Amino acid sequence: MRLRCAILDDYQGVALSSADWSPLDGRVEVRVLREHLTDRDALVAAVEDCEILVVMRERTPVDAELLGRLPRLRLLITSGMRNASIDVAAARARGVTACGTDSSAVPPTELTWALILGLARQVHVESRAMRDGGPWQSTVGTDLAGRTLGLVGLGKIGGRMARIGLAFGMDVIAWSPNLTDERAAEHGVRRAGSLRELLGAGDVVSLHLVLSDRTRGLIGEPELRAMRPHAYLVNTSRAGLVDGAALLRALREGWIAGAGLDVYETEPLPADDPLRTLPNVLALPHLGYVTEANYARYFGQAVEDIEAFLAGAPVRELRPPS
Description:
Blueprint: E1 3-7, E2 28-32, H1 40-47, E3 52-55, H2 64-68, E4 75-78, H3 88-93, E5 97-99, H4 106-120, H5 123-132, E6 148-152, H6 156-167, E7 171-175, H7 181-186, E8 190-191, H8 195-201, E9 204-207, H9 221-226, E10 232-235, H10 244-253, E11 258-261, E12 281-283, H11 292-310
Parallel strand pairs: 1-2, 1-3, 3-4, 4-5, 6-7, 6-9, 7-8, 9-10, 10-11, 11-12
Helix pairs in contact: 4-6
């Protein structure tokens, strides 16, 4: 009997064309769900006959309750090797193997700079004016050279961000809870003595931390008020790092000049969310990891994960958080 596999949330309809799924022919029946199913009952009805699920990042949470309603499920695959919306311990308790894939730091780094450059040169404002017949030149851009880039986090993505910031002629400073002077020096940047020091010095502040109990809500009202009125906050990491209500106040009341956002507490972002319409927000629909090369990696390794599982030797297994 062939196993059934459902690929969830394939927004662009490219999951099957991004990789060679033919090694599974005759053994696994693969189907794709392009629409995001927020209704739990509808989701269960769509995939309850499946032994394998492939999920994209945190688009669809897989918690203990959902696992309990999918008794046939045996293999759960996520893009990337970290997915906070999957209860790996609950999966393991139910005999479900959870596996991941590699993920590149290049696409989110490039997108973060797209947001920074877009904000600095008011690309979203000027592009909209061009499209809608508005004024010819209504803004004055901000120079990046000579300005200060504050990086909250100096890991794989933060390190790449630092090199590019230096190439733009920016003064780059960094902070994270465990960052040392030596680690900062390896990247050619200075370590800020505290988060508050970094926020007060940065003309652009970009977040690159993993979301955890320790970092959730790290940027709240006091931190946003510590930023310069002309500064921009950029978040392509996780929405939970920032207090959403405080950010809205900061943007509406001018505590900061604006924000570049690619991550949100609720995704897809509701149509009436004010972040969609605030004039000082450059917002994208969580595109940080969405590139041809990354998708080829995700779905190609998903096929490998399924093949290894069928052979009785799973690879890239996820472990419950310690």
